[in-house]
Amino acid sequence: MTTVQITLPDQLAQEAQRAGLLSSTQLERWLREQLKIQRVDELFSAMDRMAAIDQPAVMSPEEVAQEIATMRAERRAKSGA
Predict the structure, then answer these.
(1) Which residues contact 27 (CB under 8 A, 6 or more apart)?
(2) How far, in Å, CA of 72 to CA of 48, rounded?
(3) N or C: which end of the chain has fewer CB within 10 A?
(4) Are the beta carbons of 27 and 19 closer than 8 angstroms?
(5) Is 33 domain-assigned?
(6) Which 3 state secondary structure label does DSSP give 1?
(7) Are 13 and 22 a contacting pair, CB within 8 Å?
(8) Domain encompassing residue 21
(9) Distance, CA of 79 to CA of 73 (rounded, Å)
């Protein structure tokens, strides 16, 4: 376990203490919720960045097969096979 010390204004600390918000259980719950929210926010941010990227047109299966054949031919040529 790690001990964390925080500095709060007296009035806020007193109110939080009275409300039971400064218990280890409550702080752990709050931190876990905040971490989950942050991860979800980061996921949506990444999705927004991905959506903003201009993607090439979708390749047909034939085009994919041709690219694979080209790549394999290049590998064979490099390896001398």
Answers:
(1) 21
(2) 35
(3) N
(4) no
(5) yes
(6) coil
(7) yes
(8) 8-52
(9) 10
How far apart CA 42 and CA 28 sit, in angstroms, is: 21
Query: Is 45 part of a structural domain of the chain?
Result: yes
Would residue 81 count as lying in a domain? no
User: 34 is written with which tokens?
Assistant: 């905040």
Give the integer Cα–Cα distance in Å for 44 and 40.
6
Average pLDDT, the chain: 92
**Domain annotation covers residue 62:** no
In this prediction the pTM is 0.58
Which tens digits make up the pLDDT trace of 22-52?
Answer: 999 999 999 999 999 999 999 999 999 988 8
Measured in whole angstroms, how far is the alpha carbon of residue 2 from the centre of its chain? 25
The Cα-based distances of 31 to 11, 36, 49, 59, 81 in angstroms read 22, 9, 27, 45, 58
C-alpha–C-alpha distance, residues 66 and 68, integer Å:
5
